[in-house]
Amino acid sequence: MAIAALIAACTAANPDASDSATDGADLTVLGVTTESVVEPITDPVAELSGTIRITGSSTVEAITRAVVDGYSQRQPGVTVDIETVGSGVGLADLCNDPAVRVVGSSRPINGQESAGCLANGVVPIELRIARDGIAVVANRTSSLQCVTFADLYALAGPESTGITTRDDVSDLAAELGSYTAWGQGHVSLVAPGPGHGTHQLFVQSVLEPIAEGRGVGAFMRVDYRGLDSNAELVEAVAADPAALGIVGSSYAVRNADRVRLIGVSNGSGCVLPNDAAVEQGIYPMSRDLYLYVDGASDDPIVDDFLLYYLNVALDDSVLRSEFVPLAPGERAETAARWDSR
Description:
Layout: E1 3-8, E2 27-28, E3 33-38, E4 50-56, H1 58-74, E5 78-84, H2 87-96, E6 100-105, H3 111-119, E7 124-139, E8 146-148, H4 149-156, H5 166-175, E9 188-192, H6 197-213, E10 225-227, H7 230-239, E11 243-248, H8 249-254, E12 259-265, E13 270-271, H9 275-279, E14 286-294, H10 300-320, H11 328-339
Parallel strand pairs: 2-13, 4-5, 4-6, 8-12, 9-10, 9-11
Antiparallel strand pairs: 1-3, 6-14, 7-11, 7-12, 7-14, 12-13
């Protein structure tokens, strides 16, 4: 059975995208159409029974749940138990909990985590499955159009603790060379908690380079409001005119009628986090989404589940979850990485 699906980049994700950005740069919005075809598995399916336990990222969870919808028909005797705990906790589970052999992660495994896995006889195989981005969103009443990494540091970095007004954010950002007009009024930050890959990747890619240059620790301001899911983050920003949020970009685009998408500039123009910008890598906070699987596992359920996930259900499940799919060659590379472990 071939599964074909069509995805279009959200070129009108922000109704106010035609407004000029606050730093004077043009707002880049791209559109692209991609066709995805999944080839069938022709091997006979052995009937299996048992349980496979999956933990990790709340972002990747949406894709995995879409896969499970079809897998339950392929293997009705297998129970798939999914628990959302965040990327960091999920990777710790993979390394330390023999019951967990598959985790979702919205950021790459780090060296310490990988070493911990290997020390416990777990071989973490990295399987890239989709693309997403980290979006900045504001309340629909906000006039903010575009921010730089300096602005994001001034809003969310360690030196921002205690800052409650846009004037103060603007002053700190100006120290770092930003000319963004933040306006006046109160400001607050909502973001995923520290166990989430979105939080960890934001700190690593946005805050850490500036913090190191200023001789301070790299962490998110201690008085931000931490929430566990994209849905909660969007709800909080939609309800609070002072709030800005750090959210998965695909979820933010799907909810652009409720929050304002803020463009991000890395010095070469302001880019909105639509699917095409993420797919082409021009959005400054684009990221890959992963599964990590124990390559040392000899569990036939794990092998069968990954066979189905990567060769039958991946593209369709990514599209259903409204993330950005891999190119056909990249998808084939992911499947080959598991097959050749």
